[in-house]
Amino acid sequence: MFKPENHGLSPEFRLTKFSTLRVYNEQQHPQQQLGDKETKDDKSKEGVGIGLDSSVIALRDELFLVQSVDFFYPLIDDPFALGRIALANVVSDVYAVGATEIDQIKLIVSAPTEFTEKERNVIVPMVMDGFLAAAKECKAPVHIGSIAENPWCIIGGAATAVCHRSELIMPYNAQVGDAIVLTKPLGTQLATNAYIWMNERSDNWTRLQERFSVADVEETYRIALESMCRLNLTGATLMRKYNAHAATDVTGFGLYGHAENLAKYQKADVDFHIDKLPIIKNVREMAELLGRSAKLLAGKAVETSGGLLICLPSGDATSFCEEYRNSTSHPAWVIGSVKEGKRSAQMNLNLEYIDVD
Length: 357
Fold this sequence. Notes:
By secondary structure, this protein is an alpha+beta fold. It has 10 helices and 13 strands. About 6% of the residues have low confidence.
């Protein structure tokens, strides 16, 4: 775990104190994202506008340009891990359309004007190192421009890929009978917040102490941190192998928001029915203790660097999940199905909750 004093900073330094800009990346409300929805109805056009995760633009000779820009504020105090999460979050939007080979990534980072010179010289390079370390996993070159000063701390980037038509999985071909698979658990926001509250000895930590030990919170945080740092590359690769029909990644709008948005984008008249929610160990109980269960248990809690939400043939779903576990040592889950409907997401009134450790 990051200890600021080991880097010559005050033991009281907290990167999350510079998170006053509570804006989650470039996305709008999911209901407002569909300005390019006519693309799915015009058979003479191919691609995806700005309505979903990435912009997918037809070029020539069956080539497509896939681009995404994504950024957020510090949600944890460890700058190296934050850099890794930022990279995973940026490339996830490209992976969501099946593009697994990324041609360029640009780092976007701003140093808060409230940073001291020492803090800037320690924290910014650590964020960059984490970003670059994660980029090596996806074998993509990274361009680092100038580091801007800003009233707020912003970390993110832009990812670009040029792909052949055969490499892409357009996000609007879900079919009745498809299984819906999720590749990462939910609950990252509360898991990371609980760790911050514990370190700050806040009122929320006082309440959490009634049921949870320091070791409990640290374990929950570790699970969330690993999940957020893990690339969605394996999931994207397996999407192509197992004939996925549509996908998105789960981030700022929560599982329900992203499922609803993806459903509205479909060519067919379908609904997405969600029956299960995999949630990081201890998070459900933490939410209950703090009176914060409503959004979490409705699939509406904010996530960062979440998993892929994938529609694929039901006959391939079990094999997908088995190979995903064998490749990553982590589970993926069949959490629902695609049925005839009116392009919406439906949450089962008797949801099954899965604790993930």
